[in-house]
Amino acid sequence: MYITCLDLEGVLVPEIWIAFAEASGIPELRRTTRDEPDYNKLMKWRIGILKEHGLGLKEIQETIAKIEPMDGAREFLDELRSFSQVIIISDTFTQFATPLMKKLGWPTIFCNSLEVAKDGEITGFKMRIENSKLATVKALQSIGYDTIASGDSYNDLGMIKASKAGFLFKSTDKIKADNPEIPAYETYDELMSAIKGAMN
Q1: What confidence score (pLDDT) does residue 167 get?
Q2: Is residue 30 part of a domain?
């Protein structure tokens, strides 16, 4: 019994924070988990920048409404779900992910939630569980599933390495160089072949 676990941003949709950095004209917000391995540190820093600029959930959601899945992502996901259970495991937040899930055909996603004040200010965030990607993969394995995992960032490495098969997808040169033992792919066709191969 296999479950394929995929990261969301950078794998199926563009990075939300990079899109928002461009829309808001705040280049510092381009920093993502590809650059900063410590997610708590990254989010606290982001919330500080939003506060400084008087920006909240509404402005980010307006940007998200314009984000489309990456070319081929919906078709890749549809084909993958035809022969494998699929869970998207993301460090994003339900308030960000819902419109994107609609565009991807409502796949299952496990993610976190933002703490938002009545005026829309993002005041904090609640992680579903510590090391959520690795913890989720281990939990799935504990109930009898073999996991196959793919992602592009530092926070995906735990679930990739703990899975029966794991792949980097559209990752950075540094992450690929630091983890030469993990196969790395750039196209959905390559990733699909690798997932199918891992199941046989």
Answers
A1: 98
A2: no
Residue 39 falls inside a structural domain = no
Q: How far is CA 100 from CA 16, 144, 194, in A?
A: 10, 30, 25
CATH number (domain holding residue 80): 3.40.50.1000
The bridge status of strand 108-116 relative to strand 122-126 is antiparallel
Q: For residue range 141-188, list pLDDT tens digits in order.
A: 999 999 999 999 999 999 999 999 999 999 999 999 999 999 999 999
* pTM recorded for the entire structure: 0.91
Asked if residue 159 is part of any domain, the answer here is yes
The whole-number pLDDT of residue 34 equals 77
Signed CA dihedral, 157, 163, 165, 169: sign only: negative
Residue 40 lies in a domain: no
Rounded Cα gap, residues 16 and 185, in angstroms: 22
Answer whether 170's CB lies under 8 Å from 143's CB: no
Active-site positions?
A: 7, 9
**Number of domains into which the chain is organized:** 1
- Long-range contacts at 159-162 (CB < 8 A, ≥ 24 apart): 159/5, 159/89, 159/133, 159/134, 162/134, 162/137, 162/138
